Amino acid sequence: MTQTQEQTVPTGDTPFVPIEKIVSLCKRRGFVYPNSEIYGGVSGIYDFGPLGVELRNNIRRFWWWSMVQTNDNVVGIEGSIITHPRVWEASGHVENFVDRLVDCKNCKRRFRYDHLPKENVRLNTCPVCGGELTEPRRFNLMMETYIGVLEGERMKTYLRGEASQNIYLDYDNVLKSSRVAIPFGICQIGKAFRNEVTPGNFLFRQREFEQWDLQFFVHPSEMQQWFDYWKERRFAWYQSIITHKDRLRFRAHGPDELAHYAKQAFDIEYQTILGWQEWEGIHWRQDWDLSRHSEYSGHDLSYTDPETKERYLPWIVETSGGVDRTFLNLLIDAYEEEPPSGKDKEGRTVLHLSPMLAPVKVAVLPLQKNKEELVTTAKELHHKLRRLMVCQYDDVANIGRRYRRQDEIGTPFCVTIDFTTLEDQTVTIRERDSMSQIRLHMNHVPAYLLERVRWDYSV
Ligand code: ATP
What's the CA-to-centroid distance between 276 and ligand 1, angstroms? Predict the structure, then answer.
């Protein structure tokens, strides 16, 4: 992302949360840390802390559940990060996976050429200070590595620049080893590596990140219908996990952006303080990938229809998104600073994360720490619940502060053990967003919570 885009503030009534607030929350509460921080960090590389890893796992699992587990015609794989180097020649990455970079001779800022506003390209000026720009230089984004130990026998290859190539490589094996027939899809979630020339905006543009891909193989005559189907389905999926539905849109690629084989392509974009940014791409890949791998490997990847015996190279609909951008966009979407109100006199920061994705599902809180019976009962319930879902026990500070601590990390439910519990075995369940409370018998708490946090998405 360029400096120009960083300065774009969308118009409209709704305030957008500054990225710095998300960065600060993530560090403070253990979602995300800068990688190698004690050595000064590495630009565009991050680690995920105790809450971050829970949220990430939930995001991944939900995608997998809704894309693989609940579709009869979709299967999953997990390919390796390192592949034969010819893969990246066939895919075009060695030759064409480049960004063009320009520097401002005056303020020394650096921009991706394709992200410059048209006017600045025309005038060759810096969008920040108006200074003159250098000639664009080409940089390949692939990260190199070597296989083997002996000098002279080492083979240069690459950390994968996109995860999807494994799917084309395994397509034939999947066909032969699974009971799939066209139309069918293969999904994968996996790390990708890019020497981004302008990493930045926190998790938005990293050098090591994670992608999720569906490659859906179809008969050419059915390409349009499946393209439309997955385009709409992926949009509905993203809509189902955000609160601000109006911040999601499609952007059609213009003729100058389309690959030569693509009839159309769309980005699903989300609007933040950085402007409208790509979240996932829906691509018309035709038979480009399978034909290139057939050509470069010498292995015929065409398909024979089991009934008609027609032989053809399948066409592909690709939906390719990012776990990290989902992580970031969800936090931005969920973040709210609520002013003091009748319900909460001090005001609070709250993450309105969907309960099924929230890193911690429930916190069990004894009303007072110094009353042994309250503590014992609370710990018993905590031990029971933590076998079913991520559950925290907290007895430090007054109950209001403990609620706010949980609100800030998006915990949808807090269960409070109070003196009435000791009399009739009922507890208070407080709901994060409305702050409303109900009383429930302790024995019913597990079933109640399980129902409220389960995967929920229908197509
Ligand atoms: P951009 O135009 O933003 O560079 P792209 O078009 O190169 O993205 P794709 O190659 O289509 O992106 O990758 C698919 C998805 O992977 C993107 O929609 C995004 O969610 C994610 N992604 C791509 N590059 C990065 C990155 N550097 N850091 C984090 N996520 C990324």
Answer: 14
DSSP 8-class letter at 375: H
pTM: predicted TM-score of the whole model, two decimal places: 0.92
Ligand 1 centroid vs 23 CA: distance in angstroms? 20
Are the CB atoms for 391 and 385 separated by under 8 Å? yes
Q: Which of 6-15, 121-130, 184-193, 414-423 has the lowest mean pLDDT?
A: 6-15
Ligand 1 binding pocket (C-beta < 6 A) is: 162, 194, 196, 205-206, 209, 211, 278-281, 320-322, 324-325
Length of the chain: 459
| Cα(380)–Cα(388) distance, integer angstroms | 14
**Ligand 1 geometric centre to CA of 318 (Å):** 13
Which atom, in ligand 1's list, is nearest to the CA of 211? 16
Residue with tokens 């955000």: 242
What is the residue with the minimal CA distance to atom 25 of ligand 1?
205
The dihedral of CA 344, 347, 348, 354: what is its sign?
positive
| pLDDT tens sequence across 70-129 | 999 999 999 999 999 999 999 999 998 999 999 999 999 989 998 899 999 999 999 999
Tokens 């035709």 map to which residue?
286
pLDDT tens for 281-336 read 999 999 999 999 999 999 999 999 999 999 999 999 999 999 999 999 999 999 99
Whole-angstrom distance, CA of residue 219 vs CA of residue 302: 11
Over residues 204-210, mean pLDDT: 97
Distance 135 CA to ligand 1 centre (A): 25
Indicate the top mutation candidate among 46, 56, 162, 278 to test ligand 1's pocket, ranked by most ligand atoms within 8 A of CB. 278
DSSP letters for 248-277:
EEEEEPPTTTS-TT-S-EEEEEEEETTEEE
Q: What are phi and psi of 282, to 5 degrees?
A: -115, 115
CA pair distance 275, 10, nearest whole angstrom: 6
Segment (H or E) for 354 = none
